[in-house]
Specification:
Blueprint lengths: L1 H8 L16 H10 L3 H27 L13 H4 L7 H13 L7 H19 L6 H20 L8 H27 L5 H34 L3 H20 L7 H20 L16 E2 H26 L4 H15 L3 H11 L12 H27 L2 H9 L4 H16 L1 H14 L9 E2 H8 L10 H31 L6
Parallel strand pairs: 1-2
Helix pairs in contact: 5-19, 6-7, 8-9, 9-10, 10-11, 12-13, 12-15, 12-18, 13-15, 14-15, 15-17, 15-18, 16-17, 18-20
């Protein structure tokens, strides 16, 4: 029985070796499974390789292999002098680098630009690293203190007053506008077919201006007295600090819980006093550098950062206003959003630069760069409003209902529950708008502001560096700069999105 079983079921020869399994890992596995696994992918791979061969290889050869790296003028970048076909003319970039960064900013004052860049980087980097502490203090310094310090560093000048003087000046400007409008209507009433009606309306508005004048007279009188004193800035500063700290103390809870708000207010004003004294703002400050001399990467970063920081709060407010149950707020938000989204950015810049001064009082002027900043912020804010509204629509209604069941107010529900989830949903759309804004800063060249591309085009007029490859080199260099900033924002948005969506990971 044993012999029969062995002869029937036991193999007498070896089984032949099976072929090795197909490798699916590493570079070979990637090529086999992703690039050459089907006729369609094989065709696309071949087309991709051809595209790289006809674009990346020539670009690399132009930028590095055939490039000229040293020279003092255009002769170094000519094929006759180099003895071979010349690619990128990097000596031209070396010669024009400061113009591309600072524009026509005075050379003796460029340390102010460098200091502003350094302060911005030092305050921004801790905000981008999640593990670093003191995010609240750092945010206040970057979003509140840094813009003020950067303005006085870059523009220069000092201050002649503080809260009381500023409030009196704004109210006086408002009163002058009211009185001027009334006088215009009275003058029109003398020569118009609706003369009596316009005359009556003009006198009514002029009477309103007179009432406003007497209401704000104590404040304007106090402001005049402060200006007449020898220490107008510091007296006004102390008075403003006392008023603001008292309001913070009362709103913070008074004698029971208001001490923390009072200490915070006093510390803030102490820091402001230190900055005023350190920068000598009470005695004129640094020499003024007109914004018409600004240019290059400086203007690009100022417009981009200001637009990014200002547009997101505007967009959030407009998105919440569009969903409001109050008709006036909802209609205003819808009208604002649709108006600004219905016109191109070029039109906005032209309007802000050339037409806005026509609507302002004769004794009130706004700097050209500030007008462009306001136009860019409002334009981008309208687009951000729709991004945020999409995120708000994606939040389930049960979240608000659960918060209402817990007794949370509308403000707490929106700020702590609904809005964080909405912003998390639309991080890609928000960052996409930021990247688009950074690239659209080049449009300010049409309103006589020399950004990075504007300074580059201005440098082409220098006959010392006129060569066939100068323009290609300049545009390649600025393209690399734009790519570094935009790619950095894109990668950081992916990091934030991955970190905030930890609950959705598999």
């Amino acid at each position: 029985m044993t012999d029969i079983t062995a002869s029937s079921f036991v193999r007498q020869d070896l089984v032949p070796e099976r072929p090795a399994p197909v490798k699916t890992t590493g570079f070979v596995g990637f090529v086999r499974t992703r690039l050459l696994n089907s006729p369609t992918n094989i065709l696309l791979t071949i087309l991709g390789l051809l595209l790289l061969w006809y674009t990346v290889i020539p670009a690399f050869q132009f930028l590095f292999v055939d490039a000229v790296w040293t020279g003092k003028d255009r002769a170094a970048c000519l094929a006759e002098k180099a003895g071979h076909p010349v690619g990128a003319c990097w000596p031209y970039i070396q010669a024009k680098l400061f113009q591309l960064i600072y524009g026509f900013y005075p050379e003796a004052a460029r340390w102010r630009v460098n200091l502003s860049f350094l302060l911005g980087a030092v305050l921004l980097l801790p905000l981008l690293i999640p593990r670093l502490p003191a995010k609240g203090v750092n945010s206040g310094l970057f979003f509140v203190a840094f813009p003020v310090v950067a303005f006085f560093l870059l523009h220069g000048g000092g201050i002649k007053g503080f809260g009381v003087t500023w409030a009196a000046g704004l109210l006086q400007l408002f009163n002058d506008s009211i009185s001027g409008a009334g006088q215009v209507l009275v003058n029109l009433g003398k020569s118009s077919a609706f003369g009596p009606l316009l005359w009556a309306l003009g006198n009514l508005i002029a009477l309103l201006g007179t009432v406003i004048y007497w209401v704000i007279f104590p404040l304007t009188w106090l402001s005049d007295q402060l200006q007449a004193s020898g220490q107008a800035v510091w007296i006004d500063f102390v008075m403003t600090a006392i008023i603001v700290c008292a309001i913070l103390f009362v709103l913070g809870g008074g004698m029971r819980t208001g001490h923390r708000a009072l200490i915070t207010g006093l510390a803030t004003f102490a820091g402001m006093a230190a900055v005023i004294k350190l920068m000598d703002l009470d005695h004129g400050g640094l020499p003024i550098v007109d914004t018409r001399l600004w240019g290059g990467l400086l203007v690009t970063l100022v417009i981009a950062i200001t637009g990014i920081v200002a547009s997101l709060p505007i967009g959030i407010a407009l998105a919440l206003g569009r969903r409001s149950t109050i008709p006036l707020i909802r209609i205003f938000s819808i009208t604002f959003i649709e108006f600004w989204r219905g016109v191109p950015l070029i039109t906005v810049l032209f309007f802000a630069t050339y037409m806005l001064p026509l609507f302002l009082p004769g004794n009130f002027t706004v700097d050209g760069l500030v007008r462009a900043l306001i136009g860019v912020a409002l334009f981008t804010g309208a687009y951000q409003a729709e991004n945020v509204r999409g995120g708000l629509a994606a939040v389930p209604r049960g979240q608000s209902e659960a918060a209402a069941a817990l007794g949370l107010s509308w403000w707490r529900t929106t700020s702590l529950i609904v809005l964080p989830q909405a912003l998390r949903h639309v991080i890609p759309s928000i960052v996409n708008s930021f990247i688009s804004l950074f690239k659209d800063t080049s449009l300010v060249s049409i309103v006589a502001l020399f950004d990075l591309l504007g300074s580059l085009r201005a440098s082409f007029a220098d006959p010392v560096w006129t060569t066939p490859s100068t323009a290609f080199t300049g545009f390649a260099f600025t393209g690399i700069i734009y790519f570094i900033f935009c790619f950095g924002m894109s990668r950081y948005s992916l990091f934030v999105e991955h970190r905030l969506n930890a609950h959705r990971r598999n």
